[in-house]
Amino acid sequence: METGFVWKNIHSSEKGFKIISLPPITTYEKRVEKIVVPGRNGYLTNTDNSYEGEVKSVEFDYFGDNFRDIKTWLTGGGDVIFSNEPDRFYKANIINKINLQQVLQKFHSGIVQFDCQPFGYSLTEKKVTVTTTNYKLIYNGTMEIKPVIKVYGVGDITLTVNNSNVILKGIDAYITLNGELEDAYKDTMLQNSKMQGEFPILKPGENIIDYIGNVSKIEIIYREAYL
User: Fold this and answer.
1) Which of 37, 137, 184, 214 is the most exposed place for a label (fewest CB within 10 A)?
2) Which residue has the higher pLDDT, 5 or 64?
3) Yes or no: domain 5-118 corresponds to CATH 3.40.50.300
4) Which InterPro entries does the entry link to (predicted)?
5) Taking the complete model, does pTM exceed 0.90, yes or no?
């Protein structure tokens, strides 16, 4: 991948950018509360295992004079890919006002700041089809995720992912469990009332997928997440 970044499916080089600096490759910071106990040295810690986001800045030179196009492009939210991490994207919002400082005629410099959600996500979406009980799914990401799971079957079904059960009642042909949205639906119709239990989680490494009931297949759709 050419040096730069991709925003709104457009590489920065297509806009006439020369990249001066890309954000460093870092890990995200876990939210930790420090608790000071009187009479005790040091401190205790408490965490819910969630992570903070991070602002990733790109410094660039711009060769051109189509400022309106640049300012329109570098706004809002979306997915950003940096060339020093070409195998993943980050969910981000641009938080700064783009100020193009003129250096020479048709030569400007600037900085864009991407306020990124924690974790990078694989560019390729994966789909695993399960047709047997006690199926072993190997998840190669480093962070837990809630995938989209589509269960094809009829009647009452018990779906088990890593010993966590989801009870599905009165299924007619299929139902989709969207862990990211935390909704169950069939096509455009919500069916949360047909689901009991928590949305399944895939953890790094081996995951056991099992089921009881009249099931023809289960599709598990996800992107790997990395710290």
Assistant:
1) 37
2) 5
3) no
4) Dit_BPSPP_N (IPR006520)
5) no
